[in-house]
Design goal:
The structure is a single chain. The chain is 30% helix and 27% strand. The protein is α+β, with helices and mostly antiparallel strands and 326 residues long. The chain has two domains: 133 residues, 3-Layer(aba) Sandwich (Aminopeptidase); 169 residues, Gcn5-related N-acetyltransferase (GNAT) (Aminopeptidase, 3-Layer(aba) Sandwich), CATH 3.40.630. It has a ten-stranded mixed sheet, sandwiched between helices. A four-stranded antiparallel sheet has the order 1-2-3-6, sandwiched between helices. Helix 3 crosses helix 4 and helix 5 crosses helix 8.
């Protein structure tokens, strides 16, 4: 008979154990690591991370926090959260979820919201913990449509791009006017990022100081590609190497006065080329919502159409809601 699942709230002395477990898990990402969460200033979030032990063995971790409504959210201050596990059985995942529900009852948490990484982030496809939540009567808060490019096909990824993308990229490469290189010029990139976001009436998720802190905390997980027209930086892409399976294009940005040169096509080509050469399975190019709509689930058809030029496919990013009954 399996040992019961015991939950231990995270404290800093468990830092190394936590991050080692995430690195070797089936579905963990950089966003689940304490090293990532450390980029936030102390006190910004009311963290309430949990570790799940079966006897002496760590079998799951759950990053998260409690907001001012007393709701548990996973993640807080990151893109993805929910349970991180090994490639393990449904029965164990169900016991982990049940232990969490019991913990919420004991700590007067009545609502829990969890956003797992999409299935492409798992080394072995396994959605046991998602089904365990649904079996325990979780519902959905929101679904977002995201898009990702499958790199597991034979040959150069460009061969699967549509005709417009292939023609644009080959013209750029043939003419040699634009050059894309790995860069450490986060200041210039952030200037372009701020300009881009201002066109849509929003601000970037990260300040320049936060990007620099992330770079210093997790240098092996960040890659900044910049496009130059001569000596002028005109576009860039900040890649997050989320785990051994997926590279996430967190920001793709350009100076719009150079849009006619189509630098974003070069950005997309390089992201796919570099990721495939380095053994990654997928390039996640992010959610595709119409941010100006009152309905947060409204898709941006123009953005989706552009992403599909690069052989991307739709993947769901869903928020699970567990209502904890007393």
């Amino acid at each position: 008979m399996a040992a019961p699942i015991n939950i231990v709230p995270y404290t800093s002395h468990l830092y190394d154990e936590w991050d080692a477990f995430v690195r070797h898990s089936n579905n963990g990402t950089m966003f689940h690591m304490q090293r990532f969460l450390d980029y936030h200033p102390e006190g910004r979030w009311n963290y309430h991370h949990l570790l799940f032990y079966e006897g002496e063995r760590l079998v799951a971790v759950l990053p998260g926090g409690i907001n001012n409504k007393g709701e548990f959210w996973s993640p807080v201050g990151a893109s993805y959260g929910s349970f991180v596990t090994e490639d393990t059985s449904f029965e164990r995942n169900l016991r982990i979820v049940d232990a969490f529900i019991d913990y919420c009852r004991q700590t007067s948490i009545r609502d829990a919201y969890l956003i797992p990484a999409p299935h492409i982030y798992a080394t072995e496809t396994n959605q046991h913990h998602e089904y365990a939540m649904l079996y325990r009567k979780a519902d959905f808060e929101l679904h977002y449509i995201s898009h990702a490019i499958d790199l597991r096909h034979e040959g150069d990824p460009i061969e699967r791009f549509d005709a417009t993308a292939r023609k644009s990229i080959r013209k750029i490469l043939r003419e040699g006017r634009l050059n894309i290189v790995e860069s450490d010029d986060y200041a210039t990139f952030h200037d372009i990022l701020v300009e881009n976001k201002a066109r849509h009436g929003v601000k970037p998720t990260h300040t320049l100081e936060e990007l620099l802190r992330l770079r210093d905390l997790m240098p092996e997980h960040l890659r900044l590609n910049m496009v130059y027209d001569g000596d002028v930086a005109i576009a860039g892409s900040l890649l997050f190497v989320a785990n051994r399976n997926v590279v996430l294009c967190f920001y793709n940005m350009l100076r719009y006065e150079y849009e006619h040169l189509r630098p974003i096509y070069l950005v997309m080509h390089e992201a796919c080329r570099w990721s495939k050469v380095n053994g990654y399975r997928w390039v996640d190019i992010g959610v595709s919502q119409d941010t100006k709509s009152d309905d947060p689930m409204t898709p941006s058809l123009g953005l989706i159409g552009f992403k599909e030029r690069f052989d991307s496919r739709g993947i769901l990013r869903s928020t699970y809601h567990l209502r904890i009954e007393p």
